[in-house]
Design a protein that fits this description.
By secondary structure, the protein is α/β, with parallel strands linked by helices. It is about 35% helix and about 10% strand. It contains 8 helices and 6 strands. It has a 6-stranded mixed β-sheet, with helices on both faces. Helix 2 crosses helix 3 and helix 7 crosses helix 8. The longest helix is centred in the middle third of the chain and has 19 residues. It is globular, with a radius of gyration of 18 Å. The two termini are about 15 Å apart.
Length: about 230
Amino acid sequence: MPDKDAGTPRVFLIRHGETEWTKSGQYTGRSNIPLTADGEKQVISSARVVVGPSKMIDPSRITQLFISPRLRALRTYELLFDESTRHHFEGKVEITEDIREWDYGRYEGILPSQAKAGRKERGLDRDRPWNIWVDGCEEGESPAEIKSRLDGVIAKIREIQGPYMHGEKPVDVVIIAHGQILRAFARRWLGFEVGVKLPMMLEPGAVGVLSYEHHNVDEPAFMLGVNMADREE
């Protein structure tokens, strides 16, 4: 961060590594699909670059972690942080359904093209194409339900970080979850509705960063670029 932003708390959005269904593009919500061997390598490679003392994700600066209960997210946590660090995090980890992946309902395990074809067969989407961000999923979650559970997590984070906007205490937060829900989280962090058109991408095993402008908890921001130099103690 530039000097004017030094000490401002961060929220790290970490997507789990690759699975067979992320490779194929199948909707993966409640299913417990394990990481592939390449998926584990993705996470380990990311950890080498961004996790460690004075690195972007410095365990000594992390005050809270929110982790999806799906096995692919839990395994990503194990690969990102070594056993000693995980021991240090005891009491700081919340495994919560609030940041699980979108519940895709009857679309679970199928491709987007198949979901669209099925909806057409059932007489849906006659006026405009289906948009998951606006319409949600049959027998699954709506954008309003996604908004409700993510807003609860955001409120917790701002309560944690709000008193320390100038770095009085290290209060970085880590979220380990899934591609769709993390993109929804970023929208809500910025104050946008889940259905707003805001194209974003987050690769398996990758890290996104959120923070605040002007050391102000009421000015949440998305960090478009992050300086990868070691952070000073």
